[in-house]
Design goal:
heterodimer, A: mainly alpha, 23 helices, 66% helix, B: six-stranded parallel beta sheet, 14 helices
């Protein structure tokens, strides 16, 4: 284990988080928030800087980073970031205890958007605190380590392990040869689309603050809103439609945008995952529209509602314009399926990822073919490229581990007396593990909140959110035996002492 | 600069490592997926799996707007094809590795048609280095500057050497020879020493001077070894062929031992006067029988690093004067040289990488301002670079005591009109001089960079 490099990266993460936190602090001043809100940020920033500098003592950035160091760096960074990020909520009194704050923060960073706060409490919070709550989505969406790699000089070698652990998807590659340049391009695209959305929302009639909050929520595919009724608060259908479209945009693999920037349109759109993504959106929207038209009344309204909800769920954003818990059964089934699918790999969206599903389906078809022709040789091909067996194998393993986490969490959450029926506990876990936000049922549905759960359930769901965002393995690795084993080494002073004693003995 | 390396063998990997550290955009193409994956994990490069001789693969890698395409696959023909294709696609420069002596000879004939900027032959370059060291056995390594007028040699201070415990400022008064110790490696740490530096045994020092002055210096120290008269070469590879050719030209006797009978026949056709032995050089009896104790040079050139190390250890044990071992893996080379088991260690991939990196570095600057020669020392931690001094560099016409050079940089030698001087405070660099700079900053591209930030005080 390369503790020096791990400490170096962790210290940089803490300083970066302190810098990020300065933005809501400024917002606090602009909106003349209560003194405690301001203090909550000042104290946390001070703590982050102090701890960051403390652990950076004797840290080194030039050490070699191997796969397991990369995994450890990523999961530890996310844990540390969440632990500190939760502090302002507690100091400002937004939540009643630290576990709630942590749930809220992890929900933010992992771009889940599940809240423990009831709607009326959210609307009463200070503007700075609310800004931070949504800003965590934006930070967590693209990944804070990617950000650190974009701006900090790191040795470069081995950083691929970090990127691979943080960026979701079965296969992670670079856009250009330099990792720091890749990170810069990704953040550039991310920032540009976020700003574009802010402008569009302002044109549609939102004020700057609300536009930013909802752009952050969309960009990270998070789903925190500063309104109790989420996007349903706004009556202008233009807002609904533009947020739907931007959600879909952020659910697309960022490589596509890079290729568009390079004007390689053919390569950009000749992408099976992308086609499946839009096909699912289209088909689901059509079915849901037909299904809810009797309940809603007008065609236009039901199309608007279903398109928004479908976009929101497949990208794992979790915004809502209506309480889909009251929808007919077929539509609810689609909701659950969409929650499971998730967005495309390499986007800011969560979930199981469509590319994985494509790999699973294609290899299942291949296995069936093999039953008929036992000696048949065939490869799984996506976009005219053969998917290598390691990736297929990895996808299956991920599926098994993912399903296990889902089922175990479902079982554990069902023990909580608050979750009244299996739908509630299942969709709550599914929603957290896939970083969506709302589930189905009275408590976790779009109109409810997670506040009433037992604090152990909240911890369980917090862990699920982290597992989901980092795609399970980095977090699991922290508990793997042998991960932390280090060679017992002696300090120089101690060695010198031993040598001196030896010399003495020899002299005698 | 955008550089594409095709073929991730030993040389390709050494290049990818070196060039990506110098902040170039490096792409590597290889057909072997595992190799690419490993490389992507250890270096900051982009890896592409595919056949680099294919138009589509090269285009995918961006050969269209590449500044340099380097072909280092195992096959010469493919390398030439790759370069031809890359030029057609629009790459500005191409370098091909061509190893086969027969192709190399005809390369002059078709170089322009292929659009090659440079062709490299690792075996030939390595053989040349070995031959140079054999002629001056005191040095572990020899590098030439200013068309051979100045040399930089590597020397390890042995036990009981008069050099150990000597303060550098006393060196010139004790030893009447014009030499400069420009870098010292101690326990894996490199420093550019000042006058107060005290040498100790086990240090590896890098000394610059002319060959004659160096002979005088080592003669004075009583450690000068005469040039080698007879050499035993274990392993009849391509390097052996080129080495034998050079040795024949200089009139040094040599014996070649190789396991492969066909190879032995082939060599005996080319070198009818040499003694070619068909046998296993790792057999001690065979080495004794063929007179390892009587030769004063032993060169281990088999394909297996471990065998080369062991043979060299044996040769040192029986007291062969000069032992050279070819070791391909840098990690092995570090290990072995630290335990001082072997004399000179040479690695073809490093030799080649050094050549190409020198070329790449000088591509960045204008030809008259650029790097003339570049040698990497201590596994690439220190570089000795030769520049032509021009007026643009901003260092000419100033006495050196007024020139604020950087702490990590030392002006080792100035060559004026064919005469070399070890510069002191009162010397001046003039236009047209050749200047050799030793630096731990391994990204120097022009002479103007040796000045400390803040510039020249006027």
């Amino acid at each position: 284990m390369n503790f020096r490099s791990i400490r170096y990266v962790l210290s940089r993460i803490m300083l970066a988080e302190a810098a990020f936190m300065a933005i809501p602090l400024v917002v606090c001043f602009i909106y003349r928030d209560p003194l405690w809100d301001i203090l909550s940020f000042v104290i946390t920033i001070a703590a982050l800087v102090a701890c960051g500098l403390l652990i950076s003592i004797k840290a080194s950035r030039d050490g070699e980073i191997f796969a397991r160091d990369g995994l450890a760096i990523v999961s530890l960074s996310w844990i540390v970031m969440s632990l500190f990020g939760a502090v302002p909520f507690s100091i400002a009194g937004a939540t009643s205890n630290y576990v709630d704050s942590l749930f809220e923060t992890v929900s933010g960073f992992t771009t889940t958007g599940a809240s423990v706060l009831p709607g009326e409490v959210i609307e009463s919070l200070g503007q700075g605190i609310l800004f931070w709550r949504s800003f965590t989505h934006w930070i967590g969406g693209m990944g804070v380590l990617v950000f650190v790699m974009a701006i900090l000089p790191m040795s470069g070698a081995g950083n691929m392990h970090i990127m691979r652990a943080e960026v979701p998807g079965p296969e992670v590659g670079k856009l250009v040869s330099k990792i720091s340049k890749t990170a810069k391009i990704l953040y550039g695209i991310y920032l540009a689309i976020t700003l574009a959305e802010t402008v569009v929302l302002m044109i549609c009639g939102m004020n700057l603050y609300d536009a930013l909050i909802h752009s952050f929520g969309t960009a990270g595919t998070g789903g925190f809103s500063n309104r109790a009724a989420s996007i349903g608060y706004y009556t202008n259908p233009a807002i609904h439609v533009s947020i739907s479209i931007f959600m879909l945009i952020f659910g697309v693999n960022f490589n596509v945008y890079y290729l568009i920037l390079l004007r390689q349109f053919k390569k950009a759109f000749d992408n099976l995952e992308l086609k499946v993504y839009f096909a699912i959106v289209g088909v689901s929207t059509a079915i849901v529209t037909a299904n809810i038209i009797r309940q809603v009344g007008s065609f236009g309204e039901s199309l608007n509602l279903s398109f928004f909800q479908v976009s929101s769920l497949i990208t794992t954003t979790g915004y809502s314009t209506t309480n889909f818990d009251t929808w007919p059964n077929l539509s609810k089934a689609i909701v659950i399926l969409l929650m499971f699918f998730g967005a495309t790999a390499g986007s800011t969206g969560g979930g199981f990822k469509l590319s994985r599903i494509i790999i699973l389906v294609k290899s299942a078809i291949r296995e069936m073919k093999k039953l008929v022709h036992p000696h048949a040789v065939s490869s799984v091909r996506i976009d005219k490229k053969t998917v290598d067996e390691d990736t297929i194998h990895g996808t299956f393993v991920y599926f098994v581990v993912y399903a296990s986490v889902l089922l175990v969490s479902f079982f554990l959450l069902s023990a909580d007396p608050v979750s009244e029926d299996p739908t509630t506990s299942f969709t709550a876990v599914l929603s957290c593990l896939n970083n969506i936000g709302p589930g189905l049922g009275k408590i976790v549905g779009p109109a409810g909140n997670f506040g009433t759960f037992h604090f152990l359930s909240k911890i369980l769901l917090t862990v699920d959110m982290l597992l989901g965002r980092l795609e399970i393995f980095p977090v699991l690795m922290l508990f793997a035996p042998g991960m932390w084993k280090r060679r017992r080494s002696m300090s120089k002073a101690r060695l010198a002492k031993i040598y001196a004693e030896d010399d003495k003995r020899l002299g005698e | 600069m955008k550089i594409i390396i095709i073929g991730a063998g030993k040389v390709g990997r050494a290049l990818a490592e070196g060039l990506s550290k110098e902040d170039h955009d490096v792409g590597v193409i290889d057909t072997n997926k595992t190799v690419i994956e490993e490389l992507v994990n250890t270096c900051d490069i982009i890896g592409i799996c595919g056949n680099g001789a294919l138009y589509s693969v090269q285009e995918d890698a961006g050969a269209r707007d590449a500044d340099l395409v380097i072909a280092t696959t195992g096959a010469d023909e493919i390398n030439m094809l790759i370069c031809l294709l890359a030029r057609k696609l629009g790459a500005s420069h191409t370098i091909a590795r061509v190893r086969d002596p027969r192709y190399e000879r005809q390369l002059r004939f078709m170089r322009d048609d292929l659009g090659l900027s440079m062709s490299i032959n690792p075996e030939k370059a390595t053989a040349h280095e070995i031959a140079r060291v054999l002629r001056f056995p005191t040095a572990l390594k020899r590098e030439a500057f200013a068309k051979g007028r100045v040399e930089l040699i590597e020397y390890r201070i042995a036990k009981g050497s008069p050099l150990s415990d000597m303060r550098l400022s006393d060196l010139s008064s004790n030893v009447r020879a014009k030499v400069l110790i420009c870098a010292v490696e101690r326990n894996g740490k490199v420093s550019i020493p000042t006058g107060d530096f005290v040498l100790s045994e086990g240090d590896t020092v890098y000394i610059t001077s002319s060959t004659a002055e160096l002979r005088k210096f080592f003669g004075h120290m009583g450690v000068l070894r005469a040039g080698v008269d007879s050499v035993m070469i274990a392993g009849g590879s391509n390097i052996c062929y080129y080495l034998a050719k050079e040795l024949t030209e200089t009139g040094i006797d040599f014996t070649i031992i190789d396991k492969n009978a066909a190879r032995c026949n082939h060599l005996s056709e080319h070198f009818p006067h040499a003694l070619i032995i068909n046998g296993d050089a790792t057999e001690v009896e065979l080495l004794n029988e063929e007179g390892i104790t009587r030769t004063d040079g032993f060169v281990a050139l088999t394909d297996i690093d471990e065998a080369n190390i062991i043979m060299s250890m044996y040769a040192i044990k029986v007291g062969v004067g000069k032992v050279v071992a070819k070791i391909n893996r840098q990690s092995f080379a570090d290990l072995v040289s630290r335990t001082t088991l072997t004399d000179t260690i040479i690695s073809p991939s490093q030799v080649t990488a050094e050549q190409i990196i020198r070329y790449v570095r000088s591509m960045n600057t204008s030809p008259e301002n650029g790097i003339v020669t570049l040698h990497r020392l201590v596994g690439g931690k220190v570089e000795a670079v030769e520049f032509n001094a021009t007026a643009e560099s901003g260092v000419t016409g100033i006495t050196l005591s007024d020139l604020p050079t950087r702490d990590d940089t030392l002006i080792a030698v100035i060559v004026k009109n064919g005469n070399f001087i070890i510069p002191g405070g009162s010397d001046v660099i003039e236009e047209g001089d050749s200047v050799v700079v030793v630096t731990t900053d391994t990204a120097l591209t022009s002479l103007s960079q040796i000045v400390r930030k803040g510039g020249v005080k006027k």
